[in-house]
Known about the structure:
The protein has 351 residues and is mainly alpha-helical.
Amino acid sequence: MSEHRPPSPREQIAFLRSFQRLLDEGNFTATYKFALLHAIADLCVHRGDDSGAPLDLATSEIASHFVRLYWPQVIPFVTSEEEEILSQNTGRPATVVRKVREAHERYDGSLVALQRDKIQWGRLLQSVRRTIEGMPLWRLQTVGADRLEFLYPNLDSGRSVRLEPGVAYCFRAFYPMLTDMIEGAWSGFVQRRNQQLLRQVTDLRSFLFGASRTALDVPRSLLREMQDGHCFYCMRSIDARAEVDHFVPWRRYPLDLGHNLVLAHRGCNSSKSDLLAAEEHLGRWVARNTTLDADLVAGFDGLGIQHDLPATMRVAAWAYGQVHRAGGQVWVAGSQLRQLGDGWEALFAGS
């Protein structure tokens, strides 16, 4: 039996208080620390578990998530009067943002195309990794004259960190709330740094972190073919108004990987909203992704859509686990909800 245990309620509250202190009192001269916190949260979902054990994270992994976070943010912000790349720091331009913007321009906005170029992708990750190691990683937990060190020991050098026991558990348990806090603070920092450009903007956060509705139109035909022209949820024939839906809702985890997408009637998509789908839908989704994986991958590659089936399944298992532990409900159809049963985990077996 593992010697580790999930943190107690008191320990979880202490984590949340320290996290809030970090956002409220930390010295932020660039958005790197927000990106670092977000990347750690994402990696806890992708690679962590709920045992309470520590988690080792390499700076190369963190760098990969940095690139994904900044990728949609380096296009010009356009108003009726001007367009400009948003400033994400005080002083000289942020190195990571500049490097990501250069790659974005070179590969015509396609992260998939960049990742296929192994040499250039590796060079970008190496550059971002060096910046992370040199700046935010060992300064993140400094609050005034205090060093909180509740996330990981501050070794001041190195290419990896070991999250303290219970930290990965807390990031997984409170992921939507924590990322909401991070993105809100990140958006506020960018708003203050770009006041003249953003003086009339009320929804900056959607620009920085929102899902691209245009991008969601791209796989429509592929998904229609994979689903034999039927709505993924109600199984009735689909019409021209069908919508591409995130099976694991974007609000719960911003997973834009191809295997997470399904085609659904507008009514089904609307009524499901930010809920997880019931076990019958989950079983059909797992079966589709595993049995049609080769066809889906070929289609996603042809459309330039990112995909990672193992990561998609890990995120889905995490999301259902969180609902199950909370005794939460899942969406069946229309306004019908029911409590998630005990058999959901078996549906992932062999996926």
